[in-house]
Amino acid sequence: EPEVTQTPSHQVTQMGQEVILRCVPISNHLYFYWYRQILGQKVEFLVSFYNNEISEKSEIFDDQFSVERPDGSNFTLKIRSTKLEDSAMYFCASSERFGNPGTWSYEQYFGPGTRLTVT
Amino acid sequence: AQTVTQSQPEMSVQEAETVTLSCTYDTSESDYYLFWYKQPPSRQMILVIRQEAYKQQNATENRFSVNFQKAAKSFSLKISDSQLGDAAMYFCAYRSAEGAQKLVFGQGTRLTINP
């Protein structure tokens, strides 16, 4: 069964460093998302991406964050200058459109997450 | 903006018993989807069950079923014949039906299964 993959599973970085989190969505999916979960808290939406551009972003997704689909398979999240409060689990998700006109569904499939630790 | 509230931070149940997790949401939309996700200690997000708001019939998936009350904006998850493997965090989530929208999650309920 196709699945979303994410690398690395755990990333440790020093404050102020740049990190790139990588995701390989399911191959025929066209919609991509990043979410984050600070330990012990709920999952929060960061950004959605479609047709090589951002569809929606949350207030969390400030200028320190960027997303890219560099090669048609990978979907990356870059944090330019990490802060302690960026420590969290980052989930990538992808979806496709299926169903019938008027009742299209966009089921999101999640990757296993990348645990980012900023020291 | 839509919000999702899970008022039970923790729940516990005896193995083989039935437990119900509560979720309420707030929206002005008439068409949307509701989900329950399971997050075991591995922290992987696993879809448990989905409900379309336009369907009156409650969704069921084996031992998992929902009680969807659209007027009350309530969406509870019932787990029957609880098993040790059901122990996890459970998140209720909302998604607008219009387009490929983001998921809005509740705070989660930690479910413990007592042997």
Write a structural description.
The complex is a heterodimer of chains A (119) and B (115). Chain A is mostly beta strands and 119 residues long. Chain A has strands at residues 5-7, 10-13, 19-24, 31-37, 43-50, 53-57, 65-68, 75-79, 88-95, 108-110, 114-118. In chain A, strands 2, 4, 5, 6, 9, 10 and 11 form a seven-stranded mixed sheet that branches. In chain A, strands 1-3-8-7 form a four-stranded antiparallel sheet, with no helix packed on it. In chain A, strand 7 (65-68) and strand 8 form a beta hairpin. Chain B is an all-beta fold and 115 residues long. Chain B is built from no helices and twelve strands. Helix content of chain B is 0%, strand content 52%. Chains A and B meet through strand 4, strand 5, strand 9 and strand 10 of A and strand 6, strand 10 and strand 11 of B.
Keywords:
heterodimer; A: 119 residues; mainly beta; seven-stranded mixed beta sheet; four-stranded antiparallel beta sheet; elongated; B: 115 residues; six-stranded mixed beta sheet; 12 strands; globular
Ranges of chain A where pLDDT stays below 50 over 5 or more residues in a row are: none
Number of DSSP-assigned strands of chain A: 11
Outline the biggest β-sheet of chain A.
7 strands, mixed
Q: What integer is the average pLDDT of chain A?
A: 92
Portion of residues within helices of chain B: under 10%
Q: Please tell me what the overall shape of chain A is.
A: elongated
N- to C-terminal separation of chain B?
41 Å
Quick one: how many beta strands of chain B? 12
Chain pair sharing the greatest interface: A-B, 29 and 23 residues
So what's the overall shape of chain B? Answer: globular
Write the element-wise H/E pattern of chain B from the N-terminal end onward. Answer: EEEEEEEEEEEE
Oligomer: heterodimer
Mean pLDDT of chain B: 94
Radius of gyration of chain B: 14 Å
Largest sheet descriptor of chain B? 6 strands, mixed
Structural class of chain B: mainly beta
Q: How much of the sequence of chain A is in beta strands?
A: over 45%
Rg over alpha carbons of chain A: 14 Å
Q: Give me the secondary-structure category of chain A.
A: mainly beta
Number of helices of chain A: 0
| Helix and strand element order of chain A | EEEEEEEEEEE
